[in-house]
Amino acid sequence: MVFSTKRGEETIERRAGAVCTATDAVSAVKDGSVVAISGFNMANTPEYLILELHRQYMKTGHPNSLFVITDALPAIPDRGLDVVAKDLSQREDGRFIRGISVPFFGFSPWLQRLVKDDVVEAYSWPMGVAAYWFREVASGRPGVISKIGIDTAIDPRKGGGKVNRLAAARNTCTVKRIKIGSQDYLLYEAPKPDVALIRASTADRRTNLTMEDEAIRGTVLSMAQATKAHPRPGIVIAQVRNLNRGDAHPRAVEVPGPLVDMVVVSPSEYHWQVGSTAYDPAFSAGGKPTQKMEEGPMDPVERVIARRVLMGLGEAAKQKCAPYIVNLGIGIPALVSTLAVAEGLEDRIITVVESGQWGGMALPGVDFGAAVGPFALSTMPDMFSNFEGGIIDAASLGFLQVGRNGDVNPSTLSGRIYGPGGFPVIAGGSPRIYFAGAFTARGPKITVEGGKLKIAKDGEVKKFVRRVYKNFFSGSQALKFGKEVAYVTERAVFRLTPSGLELTELAPGADIERDVLGAMEYKPAVSKKLMEMDPALFSPGPMRLAKRLGVK
Q: Could you tell me how far CA 165 lies from the centroid of its own chain?
């Protein structure tokens, strides 16, 4: 198969399956293309192709007017798409990229600025919906139909996933509310990809792609299939680290060669496994995790919160004979997997991450999405099926704001564009949810001393507010479907009831009026059986939780 594209008077021909330079590969991308790009932070991000595409534009003015659509975020600060966004933002250049659909902007400060300044139109769907969308388009369907997003900021009655004014004007990606029988659903639609930039570890002689050294499997197969689907079959360009002149084992092939048009071998500096590490076999090859990560510093207040979540999970897991499957979100919840290993509960509480990991210890910060010692790696669409279908037992997610009726805003404020990430799908599907976070923000001075919490100075920003700025979790929808919801902080624990939040636990050393009720914008109900948070949460040594729960 031979295909061609024009650049002014120049015609470029490429043979499908060819190994070529990055410059030759991106020269095949036409003006106005919809470009799908894989990547979860730096894991599975084809950074070399992203930067070369930008260099080609800067050199020739082509390709331009691109619409970028991703399954997560192919960037961290000063890497990947963030580098491109920095240049475009500083030059206020809206010609190279006309629009983007990105589930999470949090690790790309320059992409946030580009969107905030209306240089490009921007949309943000839940991560699981974005991953499913590629699979649905590959199957010839118009988009994704889901209950996820109803009565939240993604609902078309409340914004429809449009992040800025330019998106509201152009309406390239849409969310529609529809009825199937008597049930309400959302239909997510976006333009089909013309080009896919994906990443793998190795390409064999048939350009079959394997991912033996990748920390995640991502959505690369579905992206390639969506790009190749009719109408308008497009081109798939793969970035790899290695070439195998022989044949890969059939069971190891992630993307079959006939779906790949061009392969580009990347220099090692543009093919890091995660944001902080070029390569560590523990992220991809599995093996039982050690407790080394527990030896590092952990903020004492964050430890209290993560411990309380782990204790709740352990108590729930005790009631289930089979392993207890738990998703952990970014931030404080990601610490729970490290503590589970330290407490000897890693075989009883199986932690999973939305990028596809089963087990191990989730990595924090810009490395989030990878895990040390996972025992299995699913694709992202397959992992999100576990969330939306309620196959997992519980989830722990962070929060930025909690409303009086239990609504949760995980990340977004005026001028702070983060997007929903995986949050709506995980929270919307999990039958039991532990929201975990500090009680207040901006400058609190809190210590853990003598088995008690000592609040010398509270944060300037209240997080328990009458009405959240952007709602990505509906308390009323959670109650409608019978979910158990708790809100865990360092000083108090609440549960969701039909009347709103109810205070159920108070930290030793905390004053209920001054430190809890006085630090909220509304007054929750106080349980008649108000309990003190377990003193073991505030102890310096291990809780010996496995022994306390009778877990062998």
A: 24
Per-residue DSSP letter, 81: H
Q: What is the average pLDDT value for the chain, to the nearest integer? A: 92
Q: Does pLDDT of 149 surpass 90?
A: yes
Give the tokens for residue 65: 């007017």
Residue 162 pairs with which residues in a beta bridge? 123
What is the phi/psi pair of residue 76, to 5°? -135, 175
Helix (H, G, I), strand (E, B) or coil at 160: coil
Q: What is the largest CA-CA distance in the chain?
A: 79
What is the C-alpha separation between 430 and 458, in angstroms, rounded?
A: 32
Site of tokens 């529809």? 178
**Domain coordinates of the chain in residue numbers?**
2-124+193-259, 283-549
Q: Which amino acid is at 310?
A: L
Could you tell me if 306 and 328 are in contact, meaning their C-beta atoms sit under 8 angstroms apart?
no
Condensed to tens digits (0 to 9), the pLDDT of residues 224-282 reads: 999 999 999 999 999 999 999 999 999 999 999 999 999 999 999 999 999 999 999 99
| DSSP conformation class of 231 | S
Same fold, 2-124+193-259 and 283-549: yes
For residues 443 and 304, what is the distance between their CA atoms, to the nearest angstrom?
A: 18
Identify the pLDDT of residue 552: 63
Model confidence, pTM: 0.89
Tell me the C-alpha distance between 134 and 236, whole Å: 14
Question: If phi over 0 gives left and psi between -120 and 50 gives alpha, with beta otherwise, what is residue 149?
Answer: left
Q: Long-range contacts for 111-114 (Cβ within 8 Å, ≥24 apart)?
A: 111/73, 111/75, 111/81, 111/82, 111/85, 112/416, 112/417, 112/418, 113/85, 113/89, 114/85, 114/88, 114/89
Query: Domain 283-549: which CATH class?
Result: alpha beta
Contact (Cβ atoms closer than 8 angstroms) between residue 485 and residue 495: yes
Q: What is the CATH topology of the domain spanning 2-124+193-259?
A: Glutaconate Coenzyme A-transferase (3.40.1080)
Question: b/e map of 275-296 (b: 16 or more CB within 10 Å)?
Answer: beeeebebbbebeebeeebeee
Token pair, residue 469, equals 């700025």
CB 214 within 8 A of CB 241: no
What gap in Å lies between CA 350 and CA 136, rounded to an integer? 29
Nearest CA to 317 out of 493, 548, 531, 475 is that of 548
